[in-house]
Description:
The chain is mainly alpha-helical and 332 residues long. Helices cover 57% and strands 4% of the residues. It is built from 14 helices and two strands; from the N terminus they run H-H-H-H-H-H-H-H-H-E-E-H-H-H-H-H. The protein has helices at residues 5-10, 13-22, 33-46, 48-51, 58-70, 111-114, 132-157, 159-170, 173-192, 225-248, 252-257, 269-285, 296-305, 309-331; strands at 195-201, 212-217. Strands 1-2 form a two-stranded antiparallel ribbon. Helix 10 packs across helix 13 (296-305) and helix 12 runs antiparallel to helix 14. The chain crosses the membrane at residues 227-249. Residues 67-127 are annotated as: Disordered.
Amino acid sequence: MSAAVPYLQKLRKPQLAELAEITDLRNHEDYNKPELVLALDQHLQANHSIFATDKRLANYYSRLATRSRGVSSPAKRDLKHEVTPPTDGVARRRTTRLKEEPVPTDDSDSPSLSRTPARDLVTVQPPLPPSPAIVTDAIDRQTAEIRRSISEAWTGSGVEERSSALRATLSSAKAIQVIALLLEAASLVHELLPLRYLTTIPAVQALHTPAYPIKVPDLFVLVDGVFWAPISLWLLTSLVLPLLASYFFNFRLNSASRGKGGGASSFDPLSFNLVKALVSYFVYGRDFDFFGAYVFSTVHKVDMAVPGQWRGTVAGAVIGIVGTLYEEILRR
């Protein structure tokens, strides 16, 4: 669209049609007025060199030239004056023609070309955290799996079976008597078998360990009567005499013959504990030396070596008596 378009818009359509016929514009009958104005403007600009000298189009080209000079710039339009050389026999004429050069346009300045097509942006939403119910179910499953693994490991280790067997073994009066005898024997041996110094493990500074002396039992005592005299006295008072009494005074024999209770055993635990308590009291509490068979020092040494002295021995025997009576009551 040129600067002379307003002039064409002021004309009526018949006047525009007349200009179209003068300039030989094709198919101008099919155009309405706005379309005819634009088509005629483009046609006149394209054929500027042909119709510029036509007086009927002087108003159009004068406005076009005036506006072009008013807005001319090095970046848009460049006006050139062409001088036609004189020919022989013809008067010298000077015509000034205005050549309109196309204005270079920068495609980057066009907003329509600088726009990039809109792209659909896909918004990636982060995954939502699981609900509390899902988290609880996962924790329950993991807990059940861990519990099942621990249960299988515990069952495979055999600890439960061994503990049950040990419990069944210790749940009797006989087990209590055996434990009491082992405790007395260990205390007596520890008292009679002294420890002798052997060597010392030096301290290790890197491990921050002190020097540790090593002591071993003095086995030479085993060939001396100082060791065997107390051992024989303890065996006599705590094992031999009670076993003899429990064998001959077996109250379970009559119960088994009458069909009451379980089968009779060779030794009666009730008689065993009664005799042990009485013998311990008279030997260690009343200093009975078996008619001079043992000296007082031997009796005193055994009494001091046993836990609780003679009172501890009697207390162990009383516990055995109570356990035996309780077993008999449960059997009946």
